[in-house]
Amino acid sequence: IPVSSRFTVTAKELSEFLNCCDSAGARRPRGLVISTPSNPTGAMLSREEVEELCELCKSEKILLICDEIYNGITYADSPTECTAVSSIVGESHCSNVPNEWICVVNSFSKLFCMTGWRLGWIVVPNWLTESIVKLTQNLYISAPTLSQEAATSCWESSAQNEIQSQIEKYAMNRALVLNVLNEMGLNAELGEISPAQGGFYVYCDVFRFGICALSRATELKTTKWLMNAAELCGRVLEEVYVAITPGVDFEDPESQLGLQRIRISYSRSHQEVQRGMHHFQSWWNSNILSHSNQPIKILSTG
């Protein structure tokens, strides 16, 4: 389903897609997977958008599968109201939001910094319970005991304070990354930088700088073709030892958008993110901006 200019799928995009399916005589989707905040973009749906999407999925009998693994990692410019599907559906005054067509998937991995402990949960409507049980009993016996014991500490007040402290560190790193990307010439108003309202990623479109599939080189207007995103990430890793993920891991291969997009994670310490962005910006200035008319700036290591 094509996403909006804000890198989201709302009831509007889903409705348009269903109309296209009907016009083409194609099968309608039986399910829709969304994540808010999203990986790789960090984009979020507003409360109103969540409610509208839930209602549309109910009327069209589409199973809405909500990945809320980054729920809780949000920033000052994120939607002010709680936009977690699980919370909205659970509110007594939201009886108009159907739960018989909603599944919620979550984990301790991101918000609670327990990546690798392999512990999560899923909430499904009653009519899906038996099918989920049949599926899971053939995949594993139970979640690891040690992981379950560790997870009980996540609800203690001291843990909640630690989580908030970690989010504040993410916010510092996010501000740093966005500032450097701006210095590198990327423009959020042109859709080159995702909203990054939640999670700990920024997704960038670098097509304007000559980074894209070779087959799209003729579409470039202000610069020549240089390389694709996978090649860029490989060179940055090998030459300045900074790991950036190419968009090919997230995009439909046929669209070739993954060859002009990159994802930057800012989940490490502030010092590491600052050092990594300094090296990336220096490499960018020497290898990318030198082929354009953009002014070159160098980030101080502080």
TrEMBL record:
<dbReference type="GO" id="GO:0008483">
    <property type="term" value="F:transaminase activity"/>
</dbReference>
<protein>
    <recommendedName>
        <fullName>Aminotransferase class I/classII large domain-containing protein</fullName>
    </recommendedName>
</protein>
<dbReference type="Pfam" id="PF00155">
    <property type="entry name" value="Aminotran_1_2"/>
</dbReference>
<keyword id="KW-0032">Aminotransferase</keyword>
<dbReference type="InterPro" id="IPR015421">
    <property type="entry name" value="PyrdxlP-dep_Trfase_major"/>
</dbReference>
<dbReference type="InterPro" id="IPR015424">
    <property type="entry name" value="PyrdxlP-dep_Trfase"/>
</dbReference>
<dbReference type="InterPro" id="IPR004839">
    <property type="entry name" value="Aminotransferase_I/II_large"/>
</dbReference>
<dbReference type="GO" id="GO:0030170">
    <property type="term" value="F:pyridoxal phosphate binding"/>
</dbReference>
<dbReference type="GO" id="GO:0006520">
    <property type="term" value="P:amino acid metabolic process"/>
</dbReference>
<keyword id="KW-0808">Transferase</keyword>
<dbReference type="InterPro" id="IPR050596">
    <property type="entry name" value="AspAT/PAT-like"/>
</dbReference>
<feature type="domain" description="Aminotransferase class I/classII large">
    <location>
        <begin position="5"/>
        <end position="279"/>
    </location>
</feature>
<keyword id="KW-0663">Pyridoxal phosphate</keyword>
<comment type="similarity">
    <text>Belongs to the class-I pyridoxal-phosphate-dependent aminotransferase family.</text>
</comment>
